[in-house]
Structure formats: C-alpha cells, structure tokens
Predict the structure.
Amino acid sequence: MAVNTRLRLHAEKAHKSCVEVPLDIHAHRLRHARATHWLEDGMNIVQISLLLGHEQPETTLVYPDVTNKQKTEALATLEDENKRKAPKKWKNNKASLANFCSVKPIK
C-alpha cells in the first residue's frame, strides 16, 4: 500500500512535466509493463511466466498490454517446445522393458 501511495505522488509530479505519465499508476502496472517489454524483446512466454511466478504461462497472456499478435507468437513458442520432447526410450527398435532397464532377458 505504501509503495502505491509513493508511486502516485511521484506520478503526479511527473505528470505536470509530461502528460503521458499516468496518474493511476500502481506497482502491479509496473509488473505488467516489465512482462510486456520482455515479450517485445523476444523472451519466451514460459521464461516470463517463471520470472513472474505464474503457475501457468497462460496467466501471463491475460495482461492487457499484450497484443493479440504477441499472444499468438507466445503461444507458438509453447507449441515448438512440445515438439522438442525427447523420444521415449522404451519405444525404440529394441522395445522391451528388459532392454530399457539394461537387464538381459531370461531365455
């Protein structure tokens, strides 16, 4: 609460010099702005989500400062990561549980 009060006091002073400074500034708005800048700079949505402490990357996409284009690009990075999954070791040419566990089968 004290942080938001201080931010508003400084915003009022700054607004007198530059009308683009919003008067309704609050700490969470700065958080949104930082996330938006990371996304604009090409940071992966998963990384941003982790930095912000979100459990799901989709939570990061609800920020109003994120454009639809940015949301689409961010979701595309999630799809790319899903494609990069490691192959299942138990589904190779030697597909047996014994081989997977490095145990010689009994004959």
Observations:
- Residues 2-82 form one domain.
- The CA atoms of residues 45 and 74 lie 5 Å apart.
